[in-house]
Amino acid sequence: MSLGYAEKxxxxxxxGKVGMTEFFDSSHxxxxxxxxxxxxxxxSKHLVVFTGAGISTSCGIPDFRGPKGIWTLQxxxxxxxxxxxxxxRAMPSITHMALVELEKSGMLKFIISQNIDGLHLRxxxxxxxxxxxxxxxxxxxxxxxxxxxxxxxxxxTIGLKETSRRCSDVKCGSKLRDTVLDWEDALPPNEMLPAExxxxxxxxxxxxxxxxxxxxxxxLPLKCLRGGGKIVIVNLQKTPKDKKASLVxxxxxxxxxxxxxxxxxxxxxxxxxxxLLQIIITQSLSQDERYVNWTIRVASAHALxxxxxxxxxIEVSFSDAQKYKAAILxxxxxxxxxxxxxxxxxxxxxKLNFSEGCGCLCTxxxxxxxxxxxxxxxxxxxxxxxxNLREKAIQDFCCGQNAMVERKVILAPKTxxxxxxxxxNIKSFEPDSLSNGDMKKPRLSFNGxxxxxxxxxxxxxxxxx
Length: 465
Hints:
It contains eight helices and 21 strands. By secondary structure, the protein is an alpha+beta fold. The protein has two domains: 3-137 and 180-269, 3-Layer(aba) Sandwich (Rossmann fold); 272-427, Sandwich (Immunoglobulin-like). Strands 11, 12, 15, 18, 19, 20 and 21 form a seven-stranded antiparallel β-sheet that branches. A hairpin with an 8-residue loop joins strand 13 (311-318) and strand 14 (327-329). Helix 2 crosses helix 7. GO terms for molecular function: histone deacetylase activity, NAD-dependent; metal ion binding; NAD+ binding; transcription corepressor activity. It is found in: Nucleus. One of its GO terms (biological process) is negative regulation of transcription by RNA polymerase II. Belongs to the sirtuin family. Class IV subfamily. Zn(2+) binds at residues 142, 145, 167, 172.
């Protein structure tokens, strides 16, 4: 989980059992259990997956209770672990993307997540197919109209507090709130109710990477038992619910799920990250009306003052390099002011230099400039544009593709706003056979075109990991 999130939580002395011993099934036993799980999934009519921090450790996000977990090290008085990359740059794991394929195939009906990393939604799971019991660090919600806003930056608060942004619905405009629970916050009914419903309907609940310690969340999988359903637990540590499970697998979640997908002859799809930004050009005539003063600004599509987490700098140049001086913008907000005659038309060339962790070094967007701005506004089919970008990125296996998805014109002050979608990362999962004849081991493959760089039993709480 996010180390920043752990620091924002209210202090409590009892965070449950930490420093739990890890167990590993032997290679032969593990393979037998993987095949048994694959057969159970294949026969299932209503599969529900219940996930914890253990599915995100391979994404560079530390867990809480493992030998090197955040709370374990805190309890031992040791320094906290260092995340391998910023929280907002974490990419879905093998397990996340395998769940996407299972959902698309119709086999997986619902996901219940205790994680606040947002990786299930980022991976491509539909919002209506996932209950995020403890919230999402990248989600804001409107308490008045219920609108949800999924961001590309980590929301600054936790504990259901007001943020610095407002609902974009002109009929509402209420202040937004974060969605991440603090220790004593109750589980939200709009997440808990569908989770309970699907667990009751489930003939198989697959628990992945969770110690199943905290009530009431840990009791959700048990609801399938009344209807004859079964529970399978995949976790490195023992859990209080192991005796209720039909199958317990002690192994790395990614390795188990990769083995299941291989047995089912299902391919784990690649992950393609697509980010949005807006380009705003504002114009005003000089007093003698011979010149136009204009400003170009590159900003987050989520809010003007929100950070652009994946852009390090912007190089601005012009199609007529003889007349116009180039510039390099290195600080947010990225903006440039210029003055030109009203009759001139040219192209503004923006070279976006990505920060470390992106799948390519840069991309370029060309913006036409003309004083006589067309008043046409249009909204392209955003989902179609994004899907086309995703398919092209997978086909070419490279990043940087971009396309406009929206254009607006405001007459006073004269402003043109365009929203662009950009492929900023791609990650594939390719299986390689191990030389010892063991199950196929997933190999991560990245775009190479640039640098990528329980509390105690005596005390129950309302919710937490």
